[in-house]
Amino acid sequence: MYHERPQKSGKLAHETIDKQIYSTEKKWLQGIDVYSQQYGICGKIDLFNSDTGALVERKNKIKQIYDGYRYQVYAQMFCLREMGYEVKSIFLHSLSDNKRYEIPIPTLSEEQEFAEIIQQMKTYKITDPISPNPNKCAQCIYRELCDAYKP
Ligand code: SF4
Q: I need a labelling partner for 94 at 20 to 30 A (CA). Which of 13, 69, 70, 86 fits?
């Protein structure tokens, strides 16, 4: 319910995808729901070109390729794979400066790293202690809602 400026920009950036008006060509899967039984995850993809096998996640402005970005596209890839699509390449697209970054298809060890993160998320307990990183918190869009945030 609570949106800060980055979330509003992100929502605008995804508007053509959410409304499925990015392209009328059938090869583009736009904003479809995806699911992986293996990992127990679901979500939405941005764009997948079923002719070339290219998966594209668009973001308003990419300054750095965070691990979270990688995990997000890995998750989309694993869901699509389980749904019978072959993802041959993955891209992050920065809309404001029109830059595209290729994310290599995850290796077996990167898939294991992803599986461990999912496992940690599934076994996380709200009462577990956390050690917030003040630099990260200062950039976090949820800081106004977070008890752990110490300005
Ligand atoms: S403000 Fe809260 S949710 Fe955001 S990074 Fe810090 S601890 Fe995490």
A: 86
